[in-house]
Predict the structure of UDP-glucose 6-dehydrogenase.
Amino acid sequence: MRLTVIGTGYLGAVHAACMAEIGHDVLGVDVDPEKVADLAEGRPPFYEPGFEDVLTRALDSGRLRFTTDLREAAAHGEVHFICVGTPQRAGSRAADLRYVDAVVDGLAPNLSAPCLLVGKSTVPVGTTARLAARVARLAPPGARVELAWNPEFLREGFAVDDTLRPDRIVTGVTGKAADETLRRVYAPMLAAGVPYLVTDPNTAELVKSAANAFLATKISFINAMAEVCDATGADVATLADAIGHDTRIGRQFLNAGLGFGGGCLPKDIRAFTARAQELGVGPAVAFLGQVDEINQRQRSRTVALAGRLLGGDLTGRRVTVLGATFKPNSDDVRDSPALAVAVELHRQGARVRVHDPEGAAKAVLAHPELRCGADLLTACQGAELVLHLTEWSEYRELDPVKLARVVRTPLLIDGRNALPHDAWRAAGWTVKALGRPA
Ligand code: UGA
């Protein structure tokens, strides 16, 4: 099928390459000519394991091209996927839909052949209906343009696998034709037995908001338990294992620590709250405000712990932060808890050095006041405190004996509860973590 994918960020670039991988003829579209040039030459504009391979294969097959021209896109696609960002609106908790609207405004007047517009971005419930009215107003008279919503559940770091082998596909359609078209798009996944749920657009949009709200709630729940554990000397890691054995609860997303960040969970729970308020059902999701607050508090609790461990004053103290990205296997520093802590430690006077296997460049670009160590050992040289804030596997594999020799004081905060504490203690380190007994 001839598909366009409009917006080539994490979501769109991966979707475009994966759709070509399963046999479609794909045109990726972006307003950023640099990004388009990079992608067209097989250079991923972001770090994502496995993406470069799938991108190269797709380009070599001749089934994937890129353009900045929406008119070319309008002529190419039987199906147009909208994959642009929906960030938090400045000065508000609501989602900023200007990029989604701009795609529709640019595309609709050029749609002469029958086609299907499919949104994949995370949007407030009701967006499909609103955009359908917009398309009806802007498309040429008699144009047959349908709208559908097909939320995306991929995780950064697993984006390719999540796209090719999703745990479910959800489509929100208003008619049989759109359903049939989307079934043809996803035919290989359907054949592989991927659960395929067809619903109305409002439900499809809500599924995404609900899924991310649930994940965020799960993380804040365990971090709330960590706070209670700290008040009692109990151990949140054991608690998570113990409740996680109950299959109704499940162990995943119960890793206590610095909490969630990134371009999705934080802004999605805020946008969901704002939309619920507009709909007059604010109280139904008011708890998400608490979820957000608990999450933010883990950052300040970590900074406070660092301050206490260094005797109450951070001024001039040498601190090393391991990890700058919001999660491992990504170079994404958007709303990164690790980076937020590094910035706050610096603001309070500490001499902070940051290390990250992939995210250092983006971290320094966002926060030029921070310094990055060239390599891990240099970053830790002379440190009075090391904070492990993003759980990259290379940190788990660190030799604590070797590291103890380069730091000034072998003092560690494990903000992700992911290092082997016994081995570090055996190597002479004092190890602290939120929700864990000393
Ligand atoms: C999240 C969802 O998991 C995806 O399903 C969704 O498609 C995506 O948002 C999106 O809306 O686009 P992602 O932001 O890539 O994916 O990252 P997650 O793996 O969900 O992690 C989010 C944050 O939660 C990270 O900062 C991570 O460190 C933190 N986290 C995760 C915890 O603090 N504890 C946990 O137990 C799990």
